[in-house]
Write a structure and sequence with these properties.
The structure holds two protein chains of two kinds. Helices cover about 0% and strands about 55% of the residues of chain A. Chain A is built from no helices and eleven strands. Chain A is globular, with a radius of gyration of 13 Å. Chain B is mostly beta strands. In chain B, strands 2, 4, 5, 6, 9, 10 and 11 form a seven-stranded mixed β-sheet that branches. In chain B, strands 1-3-8-7 form a four-stranded antiparallel β-sheet, with no helix packed on it. In chain B, a hairpin with a 6-residue loop joins strand 4 and strand 5 (about 45-50). Chain B is globular and about 40 Å long. Chain B starts with a strand and ends with a strand. Classes of the chains: A mainly beta, B mainly beta. The interface of A and B includes residues 42, 49 and 98 of A.
């Protein structure tokens, strides 16, 4: 069993829809949680960074962490065709640069006009 | 905006041949990472450098892979000999030295080198 599980999709939604992306994990030591977006043939770029439990909002994006359930989510409001990409969750027990990052396999999202 | 540079972007080679990838991190970033991303999977760390020193190479297949960062700036990842299962995207990332636990400093990724082994 991998330490981070993520449904690979694909997920296809119409423009304007609310998108929910999720990951589960098994290591209770994880405290730092990240979401990366990866366009085709590009490297991942950081979208959201959350420490411990709670919610964090940045524009149309909201990240949620529920450590009791070992479950993290990314919500995208008013989705746009430009949001079409693969979304990767990542997590660490000692911070994104002190410790190894463990990635999910990514969820492929398509937003159609 | 500063970016992590990688070359080549694409590499096709035959099995048993040697290949090398180059990475130039964002200026001033002390930490450098090499990841391997197999199609349909998330990146997996191969090796992490702090300046010129290796701090984590536990997942690097040392019988065929080697990595160096001689002057603590750019880095080279080598595979010799390449095997069919090495076909993947090789990503380089860099970050500032994280002096404060819990800071929001993070890893910035380059565009990757896509390797195909025939």
């Amino acid at each position: 069993q991998k330490e981070v599980e993520q449904d690979p999709g694909p997920l296809s939604v119409p423009e304007g829809a609310i998108v929910s992306l999720n990951c589960t994990y098994s290591n209770s030591a994880f405290q730092y949680f990240m979401w990366y977006r990866q366009y085709s043939r590009k490297g991942p770029e950081l979208l959201m960074y959350t420490y411990s439990s709670g919610n964090k909002e940045d524009g149309r994006f909201t990240a949620q962490v529920d450590k009791s359930s070992k479950y993290i989510s990314l919500f995208i409001r008013d989705s746009q065709p430009s949001d079409s990409a693969t979304y990767l969750c990542a997590m660490s027990d000692r911070g994104s640069t002190l410790g190894r990052l463990y990635f999910g396999r990514g969820t492929q999202l398509t937003v159609w006009p | 905006e500063a970016e992590v540079a990688q070359s080549p972007r694409y590499k096709i080679t035959e099995k048993s041949q040697a290949v090398a990838f180059w990475c130039d991190p964002i200026s001033g970033h002390a930490t450098l990472y090499w990841y391997r991303q197999i199609l349909g999977q998330g990146p997996e760390l191969l090796v992490q450098f702090q300046d010129e020193s290796v701090v984590d190479d536990s997942q690097l297949p040392k019988d065929r892979f080697s990595a160096e960062r001689l002057k603590g700036v750019d880095s080279t990842l080598k595979i010799q000999p390449a095997e069919l299962g090495d076909s993947a995207m090789y990503l380089c990332a860099s970050s500032l030295r994280d002096r404060v636990v819990g800071s929001t400093d993070t890893q910035y990724f380059g565009p990757g080198t896509r390797l195909t082994v025939l």
